[in-house]
Amino acid sequence: MNVKELFATSEDLERGGVWIDYGTFRVKVAYAGGANRRYTKRMEEVTRPHRRAILNDAFSKEQQLELVKQVVADTVLLAWEGVEDDGQPVPFSPQAALALFTKYEKFFEDVMQQAQSFANFREEERAAEAKN
Length: 132
Fold this sequence. Notes:
Elements: H1 3-7, H2 11-16, E1 18-21, E2 26-29, H3 37-47, H4 51-55, H5 61-75, E3 77-81, E4 84-85, E5 88-89, H6 94-103, H7 105-116, H8 123-131
Antiparallel strand pairs: 1-2, 2-3, 4-5
């Protein structure tokens, strides 16, 4: 296997997202970076006012995490199906995503992990999954 086969991703998938199945629900995530320029641009926008504080370690990790959650809710988590909270369906919106990220930290962590895993955005990987 050559380098391209191992590491090349689809820019369409990076921007348009892939479905991640959690069993009873699924979410559609775009890549956090790469061809998803909305993510990069939004991250720049939300951190710009705090850049000096961040560089001087005067902006806490918790504050930084809150900014990242907002950016991911706005630009990475694109849709979901079947999501419920306490037995109630939750319609998708960036605001609802942010609320669930805040309430369920592990949900945010897993969405972020999926959005940073280049393997999820490889066409060959998606084709192989579709066959199974």
